[in-house]
Request: fold
Amino acid sequence: MKKLQAVLITGGAGYIGSHAVQEARTYGFEPVTYDNLSTGHAWAVKGSLLVKGELADRKKLSEAFKKFKPVAVMHFASHIAVGESVINPQKYYQDNLTNAMNLFSVMLERKVRYFILSSTAATYGDPLEVPIPETHPQVPVNPYGDSKWILERILAWYDKAYGLRSTFLRYFNAAGADASGKIGEVHDPETHLIPLVLDAAMGRRKEITVFGQDYPTPDGTCIRDYIHVTDLAGAHFLALKRMMETDKSDFFNLGTGKGFSVREVITRAEEVTGMKVPVRMGSRRAGDPPELVARADKAQEALGWQPRHSSLENILKTTWAWHRNYFGKKSAGRKNKRAGHS
Ligand SMILES: NC(=O)c1ccc[n+]([C@@H]2O[C@H](COP(=O)([O-])OP(=O)(O)OC[C@H]3O[C@@H](n4cnc5c(N)ncnc54)[C@H](O)[C@@H]3O)[C@@H](O)[C@H]2O)c1
Reply:
């Protein structure tokens, strides 16, 4: 049997990275996760290669490249919380930028020329038009988005100077879980709407706070474009194949082109779970644009990508299955311990 080409997946033990690891072989690649497990989980990459390592550790990184000879890198590892980045910008610039620079240096040393960046809709800042096309001005309004935009610009220069090809994938709101029910989103603290709503449905949290009901949207709450994590993962391999065929850098939005308001998500979550979601009304949060929806046709046309798992219903169903599987077992375990069972 033909040996699959290895791809180094930084942050492969995290939420989105683990779904890329899960999909890799379907697209003809062998995933090698490089992760310090700071927010990721070894169980999420069971059955594939895991190097427990820190991106700041250039020696270890270099050894991993030497040993596994990846043809490409998918870079998921980063700090990801917008709010935290405003309070502690140093953490975002220091780590997200210097770790990526380390990675680029080792790639150049080892002559690995294909790179996929987990970028974000946050690089666009407050949208001037919706749906947001890839050509929209990039004016990030927080250090998280800014750190990703800076990486995009660095990579554009590395392409010209060193021939390091890259694809920037600007995700909208990643959501959902693998259909197997074996991997899914576990962030601590969780900041994403859908897991928080399902936590409230399950009684893991008292209520969900809706930040702002006076936005210029049909029901007054913010609208976002939710993209299933399995679709996101697949897009990485389609983008990599295309980049390897064309030997050209490119950039794509990854969204569905359709938005749902916070209220709609809550109502649909109640339908899917059959549970009441307790809601508290809060005031607007600084920096939340009313509507973030992708213009999604470029990836579909150029990559032949279809977000076929991304109906809101499927996103909610798969997250709910994952939630009950993971958090249900955890709370049953806690109850058993309290009752004196082992
Ligand atoms: N979740 C979203 O909706 C969303 C939206 C846009 C972009 N993104 C981007 O997608 C990527 C993945 O997000 P996620 O939600 O899966 O995050 P996550 O926190 O679940 O995963 C990040 C992984 O990187 C690892 N990691 C972090 N720092 C590291 C370091 N210094 N060395 C080695 N490993 C390290 C963590 O242990 C974790 O496994 C991030 O780059 C994020 O900015 C996410």
